[in-house]
Amino acid sequence: MHYRHKRQVKPGARPGALGEAPGNITHIRVMDYNAEGVNEKTFDSIDEVLHFCRSANTTWVHIQGQAGADDLRQLREAFGMHPLAVEDVMNIGQRPKFEPYDTQVFLVDVVPQRDGHNIEFEQVSIFLGKGYVISFYASDNDVFAPVRTRIHEGKGRIRNGGADYLAYALTDLIVDHGFPVLESYAEELEALEEDIFTERAPDPVQAIHSTRRDLTALRRMIWHQTEMLRELLQDEHDLIQAETLPYFRDAADHSQRVLDLLETCREMSASLLDTHLSLVSNRMNDIMKVLTIIATIFIPLSFVAGLYGMNFDTDSPWNMPELSWKYGYFTLLGVMFSIFIGMLVYFRRKKWL
Question: Which domain holds residue 316?
Fold first, then answer.
């Protein structure tokens, strides 16, 4: 489990301080669109973006990579971003949250990504203003490609919905990223369950604990995500139109479904551990049962063998007369075999075998 987090401001700094952290922006993609068409460009600097964002259409500025302190200061001055919100953009590792301001709405969400058996949480910061959306994504993954495709195709409501609908589309895409992640965990748990019952996994405890740890961390993020959407629906902000609220409610419903699926996976992992421990205990009991029966059978046999193995004077009238029999040895073996068979029959009738 990994959360890409590096705080850039020293403890004790004033609220909203950005420090002097350098940026590592991969690219800046700007889409300016309306119902008639789309104008998309890619820039390398914030200055070029500010000259481009001067239209009455809906504008989406997406900053890929880690924005530096100077870049964020430029954006803060140009768009009137709140200093505390800009600080959260720089210091990634925030929990999902909703922060309404006078002229903007600030959203923080987390995209879960699985890299092999590890899970990573990648922060997405979204500023919703009048006619524009500014999004920050520090990772190199192009998670918003489906939204750009929808804008270019012009199908549905996205070109006519305005900036608030674009913010919903981005949020809904982030929420839906939880489904494939949880489906992968569910498949792993099902494979572990089969391995446990077929004894192909000699020690699945480590794998189960690793999965439970990841699911616990994921639950914390999804729970905050669900609460963030509930707060957004309860807040009456001018930037979010009434006709867009049903779509945000649908995203909140998706988030709740992700949370329900996550709880199912957590319960499955807990039951798998209990099942594994029960099977191990049952196998140990079966082994101890067999060993106990074997030991019980050999107790009388050992007694007989020990009794007739004592060396005394065979000429004494008080000694065992069987020692002088011609077929005493075979007789004794027959008695011991009869004891063995008799005890097996007795254990079988008692259903101990």
Answer: 284-349
